[in-house]
Amino acid sequence: MQNTIPHGDELPAQSLPKQAFVGLQMLFVAFGALVLVPLIVGLDSNTALLTAGVGTLLFQLCTRRQVPIFLASSFAFIAPMQYGIATWGLSVTMGGLMFAGLVYIALSGLVKLKGAGILQRVFPPVVVGPIIIIIGMGLAPLAVNMAIGKGGDGSQLYPYQQAILVSMVTLITTLVVAVFAKGLMKLIPIMLGITVGYILALCLGLVDFTPIQQAAWFSVPTLTTPEFKLEAILYLLPIAIAPAIEHVGGIMAISSVTGKDFLKQPGLHRTLLGDGIATSAASFLGGPPNTTYAEVTGAVMLTRNFNPKIMTWAACWAIAISFCGKVGAFLATIPTVVMGGIMMLVFGSIAVVGMSTLIKAQVNVSEPRNLCIISVVLTFGIGGMMLNVGEVSLKGISLCAIVAVIMNLVLPKTKEDTLN
Questions:
Q1: Which of 308, 306, 411 is CA-nearest to residue 368?
Q2: CA 119, CA 103: separation in Å to the nearest integer?
Q3: Residue 253: CB atoms within 10 Å
Q4: At residue 107, does pLDDT exceed 60?
C-alpha cells in the first residue's frame, strides 16, 4: 500500500504571510516548554527564545533546510544546570555545556563513518533507558518543593495552603488538557496549565507586576560569556548522551509524519551535527541547550504543514520576540508554585520516557547482565553516588552515564544480545 502522506514539496505553495502566521503558531505550541526551562534554572527567558531561534536556523543550515523541526530548551539538562550554576557559577556551566554540544558532533562523525547502527551498539536501550529515568527522578524533589511553596534553600516562599492550591490546580488543568483536549489545544497543555495557575495566583495576590512596569519594551537579551573549567566539562559531557540518543527518535518521528526518511536524506549525521552546533551556540550565548520538540512535530502532523520554511519563520519570530523586554519581565512574574505544578507532570514524564525505552526494546530486566546495569545506574543516580578522581568529582547523571556505558562494553553479552 502506498504512503498517502503528501511530501512537503507536493503541497500547494503557501504565501509568505501564511508561512509567517503558521510559523508563529508553531512557536506558540513550543512556547510553554521553551520558557519553562529558563524559569526553573534562573536564566533569562528572552535569552532562551533567542537561542532557540538561532539554534533552529543553524540546524536548518546544517541539514540544508530539509527537516521541519524546531529546536528549543532541553529538559534533560535542568538538574545538571542547577548543580553547575550552584557549584561553579553560570559562566563556567555554560562553558561545560558548550563542550556537551561536542558530544553530538562526535556522534555525528561516528555515524558518518560507521552508520547509524553504531549508536545502537554503543548506546543500547539498557544504557539509555535508566539514564533517562534518572534525569526525571532526580528532579522530583525540586518539583515537590516548588509545588509546596519552598525555595531552593528550603525556606517557605509562599503560604503552604495557597501554594498547594495553585500548584494542584495547575497540575490538574495540565492533566485534563493533555488527556481530554482535541486538536491544537492538546498540544499546549503546559501553556494552558500555566495560564490557569497564573490567573489563580493573581486572584490570591501572589503576583508582583513591578518587573513588567520597570522593563523596557526593547532590550537585548542577557548574554553570558562562557568560561571553561575541566571539572565542569567532565561533569556535563556525558549528560549529552541521553538527549543525543533521543534525537534519533525525534528524527524518526518527523520522518514518519512527513513520509520522508530524514535518517537517509539529509542523513542522521547532519541532523546530529545541527543539534550539536545549536546546543553549543545556545550555551555560548548563555541560553539552555537545545533539543528537538515533540510538541512541534505533533503540530506538524495535525496541521499537515511539512514545509521546513515554516520553522524558519518560527525561529525568526522567536528571535524577534526575544528583544521585547516586557515579555521576559512578564514571564518572570510567574510564581514558582505555578511552575511546581507543571513540573510534577513534566519531570515524571521524562522518567516514563526512560521506562518506555526499555519496554519498546523488550529489554529482559531479569537477565543478569541487564539487571546489573540498570540496578547500578538507578542506585547511583537516586542515591547520589559520588566518585572523586583527584580534584575532579563525578556524580549524578554524568557518573551514571559513564558507568552504564562502561558496564555495557565490559560485561559479556548473552547469546540473545549478540543476535540482536
A1: 411
A2: 12
A3: 18
A4: yes
